Amino acid sequence: MDEAAARQEIQELPSARGCTYVLPASDFALGLAAGAGPPGDYQVILKLGVTEREIARLCDAVENALAAGPLDPDEIRERAGKLVRNLGEAGKKKGVTTTLPVALGMLQSQGRIRRIPVNGRLDQQRYRYAAWNLQPLDLPAEEIARELARRYLAWTAPASLDEFRWFSGLGVKAAKAAFAALDLSWVGDRAMPAEDRDEFERYRAPAEPRYALVSSLDGLTLLRRSFTELLNPAGSILPFLPAGKSRIADPPSHLIIDRGRVCGLWEFDARSNSIAWGQFGRKDPALAAEVARTEAFIRDELGDARSFSLDSPRSREPRIEALRAL
After folding, report:
1. How far apart are alpha carbons 11 and 198 in whole angstroms?
2. Which of 216, 312, 230, 214 is nearest to 271 (CA)?
3. Can you tell me the distance from the alpha carbon of 21 to that of 28, in angstroms, rounded to the nearest whole number?
4. Crossing angle, helix 52-66 and helix 73-80, to 10 degrees?
5. Which of 116, 120, 127, 206 is 20 to 30 A away from residue 236, measured at CA?
6. Taking the model in full, what pTM does it have?
7. How far apart are CA 159 and CA 74, in angstroms?
8. Under a CB-based contact definition with an 8 Å cutoff, are residues 120 and 5 in contact?
9. Has residue 36 got a pLDDT over 90?
10. Rounded to an integer, what is the distance from CA 255 to the centroid of its chain?
């Protein structure tokens, strides 16, 4: 993956809902079109007195600075000089200390710059920025929504209209129109590409367990946010839920999957270079073997396994303790 990112075969880009996804080159232009629009902090800085013209000038200055080669944010700030405005205490309270992050976000969403992980790895948040010239797809909004729906259903069908609405950020009318423009087959309130129906009907789950330790951001749950529905047995997650809740959209830890169902949770304990895990239901030696294999891969190849960008060995200690107590 790191090598593919270096060759620009894949790229982290703002896409659906303005969120960052890793996309293949064939979908760079569609991804940018799906996430078109200023970053969320844009309206915040306008309320703090920053003008649209001011941000436009800063964007041009950033592009000029990157003409000679990639730079990190500090180097860009130095080149742009006084065009980067410090927003003081008012901005700090809103989580925006200067105007530079907003300009960088706008330039990325427009395909004018791209970010490069400083050490080549995608699992961290330190970047340099490079000039780019990728044009988002120039298509009507309804066609962009249709193409996004086509890909979404290819990844995770059968899926409901509400699940697609969450992923895409579209309203009810636009999401319904996107589904209506496709050749779909329905299973209850869930849709799939009609061409997949025969394969779906023929499929039979394996009789024996097939375990996999996957990320908490795995598409099995991330694309639908229906984590609780996948639990086996159904009530097994209750000890991990906040008080008074019987359902959550996102998993509290990484997932142990068996034939499409969540049968346990895991975390990587960086202190002991081991996996802390808990299985719901009957223990199985086959799962222990899969845990050992994954543990060796993380220890020898990755060094750590984070659940999201701000996760750290220290912040996950309470989750590790809970898993070890299972």
Report:
1. 34
2. 312
3. 10
4. 110
5. 206
6. 0.86
7. 44
8. yes
9. no
10. 16
Domains of the chain and any CATH numbers: 2-131 (no CATH), 141-202 (1.10.10), 211-324 (no CATH)
149-188 pLDDT, tens digit per residue, is 999 999 999 999 999 999 999 999 999 999 999 999 999 9
Alpha carbon distance 305, 296 (integer Å): 12
Cα–Cα nearest to 58, from 18, 35, 85: 85
Predicted confidence at residue 101, as pLDDT, reads 93
Angle value at C-alpha 235, between 167 and 165, nearest 5 degrees: 10
pLDDT digits (tens, 9 = 90+) for 43-56: 999 999 999 999 99
Task: Please give the Cα distance from 270 to 65 (Å, whole number).
Answer: 39
- Predicted confidence (pLDDT) per residue in 240-254, tens digit: 666 677 677 788 899
CA 222 to chain centre: 8
Nearest 5°: the CA angle 279, 281, 285 is 60
Cβ contacts of 124 within 8 Å, gap of 6 or more: 117, 118, 309
pLDDT digits (tens, 9 = 90+) for 114-160: 999 988 888 778 899 999 999 888 899 999 999 999 999 999 999 99
Rounded CA separation 84/65 (Å): 13
User: What φ, ψ does residue 165 adopt, rounded to 5°?
Assistant: -60, -45
Following DSSP, what letter does each residue of 11-27 receive, concatenated?
Answer: EEEE-GGG-EEEEEGGG
Q: Measured on CA atoms in the order 227, 229, 232, 238, is the torsion positive or negative?
A: positive
d(CA 216, CA 102): 29
